[in-house]
Sequence to fold (853 residues):
Amino acid sequence: MSSWLDYTINGLIVGNVYALVAVGLALIFGVSRLINFAQGSIYLVGAYIGWVAVVQLHTPLPLTIIFVAVVAALVGLIIERFGLRPLQNSVRIAPLLATIGISFVLDQLVMLTFSPNPRALPSQLPDVRFQVGGGTIGPLDLLIAGVGISSALLLFVFLRYSKLGWAVRAASQDRDAAMQMGVDVNRVNQAVFGIAAALGGVSGLLVGMYYNQIDTAMSLQATLKGVVAEVVGGAGNVPGAVVGSLLLGLVESYGVAVFGTSYRNLFAFLLLVVVLVLRPNGLFASARQAPPEPLTGTFIAPSRPVRIPRWVLLVAVAAFAVLPLLPVSFYVLQTLINAWLLGMLALSLTLVAGTIGQVSLGHAALLAIGAYTSALLSLTLSVPVGLAIIVGGLMSAALGTILISPSFRLRGHYVSIATLAIGEIVSLVILNWESVTRGPIGISGIPPLSLFGYDLISPTSVYWFSFAVMVVLALLQARLLSSHLGRSFRAIRDDDIAARAYGISLNRYKSLAFIFGGFAAGVSGGIAAHLYSYINHETFNTQQSILALTVVILGGLGNVVGAIVGAVALVGLPEVFRIAAEYRILIYGIVLLLLVRFRPQGLLGTI
Amino acid sequence: MTTSTPEPLLALTNVNTFYGQAQVHFDLSITVGSGHIVCLLGGNASGKSTTMKIILGLVKPRAGEVTFDGASLIGLTTPQIVRRGIASVPEARRLFADMSVRENILMGAFVRNDREAIAQDLDKMLTLFPKLGQRLSQRAGSLSGGEQQMVAMARALMSRPRLIVMDEPTMGLSPLYVDRVLELIRTINQEGVSVFMVEQNASLALEIAHEAYVLQTGKIVLSGSARTLKDDPRVRDAYLGGSEAA
Fold:
């Protein structure tokens, strides 16, 4: 085992890397009140540009760094100009969703260009280590520390002494007032995105060299870590982001020292949740500081939903119910089964994100809880599958609501961050709690779906089963929304302070929404487990959470029929057009971007 | 006070503004004569602050014309309008709370590039607002409301504007500071800067203004020289001791 000094050095070096990402996030949040979920993708781009420079162009190190910074900055400028500037006057959720869409597109483009296989990114520095006290330090450590410190200094000088730097600071404190001083906010945004992207790209390069390996999974991890560091330091607070990053690096490093490598991320996300619950404005925010997001205002695009006559719905349900009796291929049924499963998840998310306004980015965790519960009950305790799925749903409802409850006091972006973190925590607990979940090996040999002792193995029976479950869940949800409960949910979404003033208990109603939504998602996960017969901690990942969000936005937030239409469209259309699997995520990202830009209320309208 | 009408510096002509479906301004027409103090009076939700936003380009009117010194401001961005020579003292000051007082004042000169003249103007501000001299390196957010109003006015003057628009400059100030602010507005005006101010406090505003307009639910219901309006029973009823006066 290495010495504590080694762990400290490692923590600080990794912290420096996080700082390069987090400072950019803080700058952007300061000016635009936006958490840029595409920051990790720029980091990924930086790593691969670095690979091209080092391995193919054989550039010397200083040139490599400059090359990466310039290309990454260009990517940042493009994102700002074409992805975000057109959304300036739209609802607040729009830019957040756009950055998610952009990150999908960038990640997939990198993956398609360079293949998903990991690559070696050789360090261009000699591999020697110097003894320092009881630990060792290498030239790359010094380079990373040097880049981190000099970037911080340059940024300080820029913000303090340059005219554009003053404009950035003024705009981040009061955008409208800055405009009234003659500050061109578009130029400020450009500057901030350019700087953030350059720092993020260089960070990706350094990390690639540090671990001598790059792969496309780096992107999401970097975004998550950067967001953790930034929120710990106080969103929008640049020095806070640096301190938060170093703290995160140390916490992770010591956590690894005590518990092992697989616990690294768990510590990061636990730190985030603790800070969000105890000091949502970050460790260094003064108590007087106003909440960083406006208290009221529409987070979600208001619209008039498309009215669908009852008979049309009845005909549609009947048509889908008799479909297996017609001469259709198994392939069509298989596709629709996937759509029904995704539809259940979308029902859950449209309730939570659309009706009550808590945009969850960790919804896959609810699938995982339901799936693991149902799989383990039926496998180890021989509980009948039908019952096990219901228990799985209840477990998702209960556990999901308890896990998410710390985020009930948060608003807007912070809910998204907290749910993202909680989702990651669930996946990491599944990975590490080997005695129950079998850890990384996963659970295999899960019994097939069965009902009252009859196995449902044929696609037709599985189709009917999943379709029936989804329709029942949809009817329940529609009933729920037409009651006074639905109105209370929407009141909380539209103005939680006013809702509270009218005596609506936010915690109780948010819990109710998550209980109902958790059940639907848990059932979907349970069915999926028995259908797949094998699951592990990666079966239900963040990508599924984002896919569900895209479905829900496509259908119209809060719209029950929309959730199902969205699921059928997003699962079905790629099949219809026979789009190769590797392009699908790219398509989803583009769909999300187009929706946010041109039809934020979705196909059927928000309710 | 003069009654002759000088060349109009700022003119709003038949402006109609909407927030979604709701109409805020109905054929609003206002002129600010060069070298004058013009005051827009009105109660809550009458459309006063929106008028400020129209002038500054923060809100676009659906119809109508806004000209400054004869040239249209429609379609210009806020920074472009500021560069034409309009400075603002926004409602509730809106200082950059975490920047120092010095930085706040210098932000007012953001559109200028003449370093030496800016430094001279900063000194001039400190003679005009002597209290700020000891506060220069303090965080602007730590100042009292009255002091913040001084910073906001100094900041507006730093761009060497031809017109300053002020949104309720006396709001939330102690009586002592209210008098001081009104006196300063007069001083600024005597140095050749035109002033357009939005106020709820009619009696105070009419004391220093040349002309005034009364806005009610988006329509100008009264206008004229400040002196005549002061004696107008309708203004008196509405603002100066009528039942609605607070």
User: Anything to note?
Assistant: Residues 287-297 of chain A have pLDDT under 50 and may be disordered. Residues 218 and 553 of chain A are 26 Å apart (CA to CA). The beta strands of chain A are 130-132, 135-137, 443-444, 450-451, 454-455, 534-535.
